[in-house]
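Hey, I'm writing a tutorial for new members on how sequence and structure tokens pair up, and I'd like a real worked example in the thread rather than a made-up one. If someone can provide the structure for the chain below, I'll link this post from the tutorial.
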Amino acid sequence: MNLQSFPLRKYLNKKVTIPVAIALLIILVTILSTGPDSEALATSEAKRGEFAVSITVAGEVRSANSFTLTVPRTRYGTVQITYLIPEGTTVKAGDIVVRFATTEVDKNIADKEFELSTFRADFEKLKADQESQMSDLEAQLKNSELAFEQSKLQVEKMKFEAEVLRKDAEINKEKGRISHEQARKKIESKKIIDKSDQQKILLKIKQTESDLARAKIDKEQLTLKAPMPGLVVYEMNWNTGRKISVGDSPWQAMALVSLPDLSKMQVITSVNEVDVSKVKKAQRSKVKLDAFPDKEFLASVTSVGTIGQQRDRTSAIKTFEVILDIEGIDPILKPGMTTSNEIVMETIPDAIFIPLESVFEKEGKIVVYKMNGSSAEPQDVQVGAKNGNFVVIKEGLKEGERVTLRDPTLKTSPTSREASNKEAKL
């Protein structure tokens, strides 16, 4: 410090008491000893308690149960969307989500209804005609039967008449029998023919009824309803490069709307191949939403992948998919939200631990800088398990002892400060 900049002369030119002079001297020494490279050492206390061995990984919220509505397969070719429930709507089972144009199927239904009505009318007319004809045939049969009976009586009368007259009566009797038999067979044949004619029209009616029922089912399929409660999420229309919208003509079986069930939410994340062997089913975890960092949810590991996937094209590191089941229900949870997830792999019930920033590697040894009064002294330590923020100290520190958060032997320029805070290889 430049003494010329310190206003000491005005005090020296005045008479001051000895205590005041001493106080001024202390201040001056303090100022001179405080240079631009000096900085108060930040410290942390060694704590004792339960220690969670964990890893923290990024993830994304999704629904445990989800249903995707797709374009139905119809006989009418291309379909067009005429109605879409707004995206983000929470629907109940049975709510209408998507409607398609029904012009063609409505025309088909109208045509089939007309055909059915015509066939039914034809069937009723046929039955009426057949009943009338059958009535005439039955009358003819009755008349032939009476004529045959009369001819038989005539033969009885001619028993004592001349031979010629008896022969003539016998001939008339035979004619009556033949006529009666023909009338009877004609009725039997008529019944078979009438039944066949009825079957033909009934078959047409049945086929038309089937076509009509199919057309009505086709129409119902052009209205998509939610099969379960969920949140409406539009899918991408790859033909247009945007999400689906009214007026689009999607192809058959194309995904239109996803309905994630918000009553059961999960987080899907990836764990490095180095750590995945430590992750087991049922392990506890904490989930924090990136958009709402104050919100924390409890979760548990429900699935650990068995096949590794390359993180990206430029990295040889493999990751494994891990799924966490979130406990409880909260309307703030939405599919697609990004999360920070702490998976607790082990819990040490009684341990002494300090921040990772307080541990350094010096000449092959692991050390901390323990405070002794106002000075920091190096202390060899033996480290144990660690998590994202703290490390267990097996030997070398006691509960309550304070350690520095940086290497005090290094100058505090920005570059050296980064070096001092560099974590030791534990």
